[in-house]
Write a structure and sequence with these properties.
Rossmann fold, Alpha-Beta Plaits, 4-stranded antiparallel sheet, elongated
């Protein structure tokens, strides 16, 4: 199985919300679609799913145009969409039948996911009687009820408390182990680093960075130096040509132009018999790369 998105475009009037987005997912796992508010990522997801008509490009699943009515596709939307005045179990059966499931199969799947997500007690409640977190869990169950091969998660962890965040992450790991193809959009960069190998960063409809996350980081090199010591090292750092970019009780951060600067600083600290608590030279985080590539003014998607 594979998903290929080639040159999709979407515009409103003269404004292009998505400008020729292309990427491919050739193996199971999690692919990240990133961007600030207004970058076009949610619009791109809706075009991929056929919710919005496109002005150009192709979306192919297993070599054929993707048709979500024929394929097993799950979608957790950023804008949650339960019907507020209907009870939860009726909605779950409705969503399952839309996926072509029999009532028996749907009932078994619903029982499993309500138990897995700890929402069984709410099955006879109306959606508007549930907290936002529990509504989110119901909608994740709806996305997973048909055991989809392709799963699209738009801001899946937004607004969740730490307990439910860990619960959702556990479910995502289970889907990865089941060799599912997953597209995830999130503003939580540590979560993306935890799950995703390949990324696309969008800005104002354009693709500004794309590729394997580890390779992208290697391309920057180890440019971040974090130091915590039992004495003031700023005068020594200045001798090495290093100026602090942040100074907190947890340590001092520097940008390193050349690796020899960090080696020189380490030698001077050692020669001065200063006790080191931490001395870490690392590649930039995805957060730092994201801010660099897409850190301009934003609008809503």
């Amino acid at each position: 199985m594979s998903l290929r998105v080639e040159g999709i475009q979407k515009k409103y009037g003269d404004y292009f919300a998505v400008k020729g987005l292309s990427f491919a997912i050739e193996k199971p796992g999690v692919f990240a679609l990133l961007g600030t508010n207004g970058a076009g990522k949610t619009t791109a997801i809706r075009v991929i799913l056929g919710i919005l008509a496109k002005e150009g490009g192709n979306v192919d699943w297993n070599g054929r145009p993707l048709d979500v009515t024929d394929e097993k596709v799950g979608y957790l939307a950023e804008e949650r969409g339960l019907y507020p005045k209907y009870n939860v179990i009726e909605q779950m059966f409705y969503f399952a039948r839309l996926k072509g499931m029999s009532r028996t199969d749907a009932g078994e799947a619903i029982d499993y996911w309500f138990g897995r997500l700890n929402v069984d007690e709410y099955r006879q409640k109306r959606a508007d009687q549930l907290s936002k977190g529990n509504q989110q869990k119901i909608q994740l169950a709806a996305a997973l009820v048909s055991d989809p091969d392709l799963l699209i998660l738009d801001e899946p962890l937004s607004g969740l408390d730490p307990v439910n965040t860990d619960l959702f992450k556990g479910v995502i790991r289970e889907q990865i182990k089941k060799n599912k193809f997953i597209i995830m959009s999130s503003h939580q960069m540590p979560t993306i680093e935890e799950f995703c190998e390949d990324i696309v960063i969008m800005d104002k409809g354009d693709t500004v960075l794309q590729g394997n996350l580890n390779e992208i980081k290697k391309g920057y090199g180890r440019i971040n130096l974090s130091v915590k010591a039992d004495a003031n090292i700023l005068p020594i750092a200045k001798e090495c040509g290093l100026e602090p970019i942040s100074h907190t009780p947890n340590g001092i951060d520097f940008k390193v132009k050349e690796e020899r600067q960090s080696q020189s600083l380490l030698k001077k600290i050692t020669d001065a018999s200063i006790t080191l608590v931490r001395f870490e030279l690392r590649e930039p985080s995805l957060h730092e790369i994201f801010v660099e590539k897409a850190g301009g003014e934003t609008n809503e998607d």
